[in-house]
Write a structure and sequence with these properties.
heterotrimer, A mainly beta (197), B alpha/beta (240), C mainly beta (108), A: 197 residues, Sulfite Oxidase, Chain A, domain 2, elongated, C: four-stranded antiparallel beta sheet
Amino acid sequence: MAEFSRGFGARRRESAPELPPGQYLTTDFPVLSAGPTPRVTTDEWAFSVVSESGQTTSWSWSELMALPIEDIHTDIHCVTRWSKLGTHWRGVSVDTLLDGIPTTAVSAMAHSYGGYTTNVPLADLLGGKAWVAFEFEGEPLAAEHGGPARLLVPHLYFWKSAKWVRGLALQTHDDPGFWEQNGYNLHGDPWREERYW
Amino acid sequence: MSASAWLKAHVSAVVPLTAHAGSLLLDVPDWPGNLPGQHLDVRLTAEDGYQAERSYSIASFGPGTTVELAVDEVPDGEVSPYLVRDVAAGDFLEVKGPLGQYFVWREAEPAPVQLIAGGSGVVPLLAMARAHAASGSSAEFRLLYSTRSPADAMYADEISRREDAAFEVSWVYTRQAPDGWARPAARVSEAELAALCWPPARQPSVFDCGPTSFVEAVADALVRIGHAPERIRTERFGGA
Amino acid sequence: MAPDTTHVTHATPDPAVDERATRVDGNALAGVLSALFAGDPTLLTLVCGHCARSGPLAEAVVERDETCAIVRCRGCTRTMLSVMIGPAGDVSVRPAALAELRSAASGA
């Protein structure tokens, strides 16, 4: 029976703010990328939604800025175990971008400048859960964090929030994107620890 | 003996250092000895089995089974208030170590040594100063000790006693200076670092220790002054 | 009749070519890797896979709490690896942007 330290334990901490299992708090904003940072100006930037039938709808940067813009306050959870609580973003809801586009798709493949892709079920993109975000903590989103605009799907692991997003290709099958083909979960719900296959 | 084993330790003495810091003398029968600058991990177990671990720098050095720690109380901390205020001679705890061979002074090095301490960062640097005094080393030592006020300076008496031709000490008070002190209370400036530390031309071995922001501000300034980054060893304690 | 090689599931070693490189398994590395992992980990050199900066673990940026540490490159801030301490005391290392882990030269 191990000896114990007399009188120790009175000041033990209350349980930490609720985090998904296996996640740890960070006060900083780590950068994790698979390759070099694409540099895209807002002049050349465009965002497209391509439906499964091939119908394409596009927005330039100024057209995106003319859409309804929302303030988003949320926690974000990265698969490499860090979580950042209480982040502030501004962006256009994916509901707005998909509004009026006929589709029977179940999933979307997010495409990024630089070639990165990630798949997200449509149910996780609609209903006020996802945005094309271009401002972080009151500042234009920096290139190393995915600027000028990234997909923001904070209720899923942060690899789903595709940096440098340039479009969504609606797909009738939940085909895997880049990380998903490299062993990451097709869904990625941090509260179910859906990290890997 | 595996470095990952927890060693039994009993507190043999508790010595207050300041209003919020104290030193602990531990009797560790299986201690293998330690180099100056190393640290250890302390593990405390509550009666219900709850455990917490923290790292502390070791103020003592060399062979022997007595290990001296100095603990600065973190406000609202979980472990340091216990070690500073509650623990008493005879109490039990466990230690793992010695740890860390990066932030260590080795007697064989002839280069001049610049120690730069922020608050409790003085502890591993004191171990180095003690080792230097006990050795035959001809290396010249300087210590720049930044602390809030004289009352907050850990080991102030001992450091003053050790001052001599081979160990120069500069005191920097950041919140409250002693009466009649020429320098007003303020953080150490780059100009002061340039004036008080060994110049880059002497190629000193620099040991920079204390709160993270202090360590980084000092290290950045030393590089701007012209010190080679690879000659600066840092140990960040976290906190402010 | 020529040997039927269509069912070979691994390359057949060619003694002339493979004299110096033999294909074995992880058991063969017990000695070499014990040297890497037995020493003080803070002295290991970490090389960042993103910006190629290298330095000792002692100098890496580390954000930690009681059960996890995120080790990031001091140059570009990428997460190089995370370290998790499980409830049973098991330690798990998850590499991320870490490109290389290197020990000091041996034979000192």
